[in-house]
Amino acid sequence: MQILRRMIARLAATAVTLVGVAVIVFVVIRVVPGNPIAMMLPPGATDADIQRLQELYGLDKSIPEQFLIWAGGVLQGDFGTSISLRQPVSELVLGRLPATLELSVMALAIAVVLGGGMALTATLYRGTRVEGAIDVTGGMALSVPDFLWGLVLILLFGVLWPLFHISGRISPSLGFEFQSNFYLWESFVRLRFDVWTDIVAHMFMPALALAIPLAAIISQLLKQSLKETMHLDYVTLARTKGYSETSIITREALPNAILPTLTLVGVQFTFLIGGTVIVERLFSYEGLGNMAIDAVINRDLPLIQGIVILFALIFTVVNLVVDMTYAALNPRLRHA
Amino acid sequence: MSFLSIQDLTVRLRGKAPILRRVSIDVAAGEVRALVGESGAGKSMIGKSVLGTLPQALGITGGRIILDGEDLEQLSPRARRQRIGAKVALIPQDPLTALNPSRRVGPQITNRLVDILGWSRKAAEARALELLAEVHIPDPARVMRAYPHELSGGMRQRILIASAFAAEPKLIIADEPTTALDVTVQKQILRLIAEMQQRHGTALLFVTHDLGVVSKVCQTMSVLYSGMVVEDTNVREFFASPGHPYSAALLAATPKYTDPDGSLTPVPETVIRAVEEEVAAFDREMEGAA
Question: Which residue among A237, A256, A329 places its CB closest to the CB of B92?
């Protein structure tokens, strides 16, 4: 019951957040200089042409009026039509969402495995050179932003030692007919591992570029809390029972030490999704982020609104999931 | 032949400052020995040396720890761990922090039996229920499913005692097991430890600074000062006539239950100076020998 009530409260808060985000984005992109009509018209267009187009897209009305019209459409599931691509925004955005979700989840998985592995290794070899080496590596990984890691990876594994594809989401020559836009997932469940391998070879570098800084954060925070946990009495008690150092770390310390890391991973994951915007551009990966940049360049107001609302929705859902997981892992919260 | 024989054990901080100075202590099978001393005297470090849980900065630099005829320091870390897990158990000081907060109580009692000693889960659970009843926990089945934070400090200490006796160890090290509890619970827990010790015939190394506890539970005792054993005696003799001036001063400094309003007698300066001098002389001798 407690959990249910908390969930409902959270959902209500989510709705308020989304309305706030919608208002801010709507106003800001209309107030800043530059407008979509100017991007569309050829040089030498007359005032009458401009007037006609503004009326067509409803841009001649006041901002509050425009907002009400747009919000009314959204409530009926209509996010408007993209000005530059001339397709419904909802179709465009939902079409690209799977690509970005797959990339983000893959990046998160890499970050968790890499960061978790580093933290556990450093804890197992604490006080030795191994720990020092991991600290230095982590510091380096953290101080370089994801898109620079992208460039480094392109240079290393795209140019010098071409292991992976440096652009796109899939090789066009494969000619595989997908029924959904979850390429990675679909090729896997349809057991087409040749296609799957090709997709992974495209995704791996952008995912790794996104994952490296997050892996470093996970590693440092988890290592710190593991270190503190390793001094606690129940860990010492487990040691006297005859457990090996490895099982003490993974069985006794990790389930408790992981809690602060989990909260942080939730927050950082939303940053990672934000990071896809530049990294997708860098690797010409056909996801939401890449589309967002085009939308901003073209001042495609309805598309920008649609993408930002979707990002905001993803952020709140991720945080909700993190909170739930936290409650599930921490028995003291379940009853509180 | 003693079950545990610590011989000339020296522990140093980062290889330098001595924490334990050639400590020799024997515990026979079924013997209850107290390790007494002020805080900082090193009494807990003896238990930690045996259990292999010394803080990282401390290391054993000399002496031997012979458990059941085997020199522990000659064993591989893995073998040492397994011997300790099978033959020795710890009753920790603070029951509030000694149980893993994210796990139910049951698995924390049975884990040694199942994971280290290879019991079946079913047998281990039956054993845990039996032991929880033995330590007078009402409704053991419910407690097995509870999380530590749902239980009181006294309950948790009972669980830790049950857990310590679960694998029928030959030796239990109790590291100030009542210090963190309030006075009324202290007495119950003390009685319980004594009762369990007698029923199971386990040897007990009882680390404490409370001479009242010693007189109630222990048979023999070692008095420590500054990491050095200043007296090794049996409890009746100690209370009748302590052999070392420091022991006598320690005994005199213990508040009497019969005289709760009486003023406390601190250990006199002269006694402290004398025993410090003894330690210094010992150190000089140790350096000379090295």
Answer: A237
ipTM: 0.88
From the list A234, A236, A242, which residue is nearest B112 (CB)?
Answer: A242
Condensed to tens digits (0 to 9), the pLDDT of residues B80-126 reads 999 999 999 999 999 999 999 989 999 999 999 999 899 999 999 99
Q: Quick check: A332 and B99 CB within 8 A?
A: no
In chain A, the residue whose alpha carbon lies closest to the alpha carbon of B167 is A241
CA distance B213 to B174: 12
Q: What is the pLDDT of residues A103-139, one digit of tens each?
A: 999 999 999 999 999 999 999 998 889 999 999 999 9
Closest Cβ opposite residue A242 in set B103, B116, B147: B116
Q: What tokens were used for B15?
A: 């290889």
A258: left (phi over 0), alpha (psi -120 to 50) or beta: alpha
**Cα→Cα distances A330→A324, A335, B100, B149, Å:** 10, 10, 11, 11
By C-alpha distance, the chain B residue nearest A256 is: B102
**Who's near B198: CB < 8 A, 6+ residues apart?**
none
Tokens at A330, concatenated: 């921490």
d(CA A275, CA A147): 8
Residues facing residue A318 across a β-bridge: none
The whole-angstrom distance between B101's CA and the closest CA on chain A is 8
Burial label for B15, CB within 10 Å (0-12, 13-18, 19+), is exposed
